[in-house]
């Protein structure tokens, strides 16, 4: 699954530069030009990391960071604060607000990318791993290949993305709405039953004789990659 980064920056030239360079590095990028828009986007789909400007219109970067830390779904989301402020007291305030890192403008893009990867490696290592393993199930991102007990599992593109997402968080139950956002995209409008159809196809493809299904249905809650393999 491609790491999703929300870039919150009101300077259009810098936002465009960040967008271009981070996409080139293989990240999925969304942009917000002010704090209010950032909070709306975060409520629609929790990012894997936020690059956040300190000085923003409507809602400040400091307040956005506070609200990220207060959210149930986002309290562990890594935040890198971008700012022109270089005073030690300002850095301390940013970190005390909940930022994980602090980058002073102007900065080298290579440094920012390195800090992003370091944070993701610490907080969400599964997003950067080339191979995901769960029991006898292996998903090899580099080769775009899935095997179970050494045998190839043939999946369509949607089933592959669905499995990738579930393998990042085995045992956790995800609602149909959350799976739609993560696999199809927050701005894609498809019916909830579409999730059921693709989960059914994935379950059938993974099925092995005399073994329990790896995909568990939790009534009125959603689906999970079963923890008991």
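Q: What amino acid sequence fits the structure above?
A:
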């Amino acid at each position: 699954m491609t790491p999703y980064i929300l870039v919150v920056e009101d300077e259009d030239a810098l936002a465009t530069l960040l967008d271009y360079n981070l996409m080139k590095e293989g990240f999925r990028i969304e942009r917000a030009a002010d704090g209010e828009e950032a909070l709306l986007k975060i409520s629609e789909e929790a990012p894997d990391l936020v690059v956040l400007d300190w000085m923003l219109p409507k809602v400040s970067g400091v307040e956005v960071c506070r609200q990220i830390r207060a959210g149930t779904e986002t309290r562990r989301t890594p935040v890198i604060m971008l700012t022109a402020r270089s005073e030690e007291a300002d850095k301390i305030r940013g970190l005390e607000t909940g930022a994980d890192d602090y980058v002073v403008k102007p900065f080298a893009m290579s440094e920012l990318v390195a800090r992003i990867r370091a944070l993701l490696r610490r907080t969400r290592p599964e997003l950067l791993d080339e191979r995901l393993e769960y029991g006898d199930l292996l998903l090899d991102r580099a080769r775009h290949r899935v095997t179970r007990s050494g045998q190839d599992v043939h999946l369509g593109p949607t089933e592959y993305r669905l499995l990738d997402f579930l393998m990042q968080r085995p045992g956790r139950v995800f609602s149909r709405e959350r799976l739609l956002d993560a696999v199809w995209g927050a701005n894609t409008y498809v019916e909830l039953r579409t999730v059921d159809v693709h989960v059914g196809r994935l379950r059938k493809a993974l099925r092995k004789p005399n073994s329990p299904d790896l995909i568990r249905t939790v009534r009125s809650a959603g689906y999970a990659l079963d923890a008991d393999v």
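Q: And what stands out in the fold?
A: The two ends are 22 Å apart (CA to CA).
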